[in-house]
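Before the break, one more example. Copy the sequence into your notebook; we will annotate it together after we see the structure.
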Amino acid sequence: MEKVGWLFSARHKRVCRWKRRRDEIVLQSDCVRNWKDRGKKRNEERIIEHIRGLFLFQI
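Here is what the structure looks like once it is written out:
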């Protein structure tokens, strides 16, 4: 089952779209480029960990 979700940042108004396939989270291609953490780019692993933390009981 594939699940699609969105990750938002209210402060920076950035959006990151992601999909879940089985136990794997796949990020949209421009997700890492769009998502910034205090002016510093977040890497893909940190974003995936953040998504897993938010949806720990659903994923």
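The chain has one domain: 2-54. The chain has a mean pLDDT of 69. Try to locate both features in your own notes.
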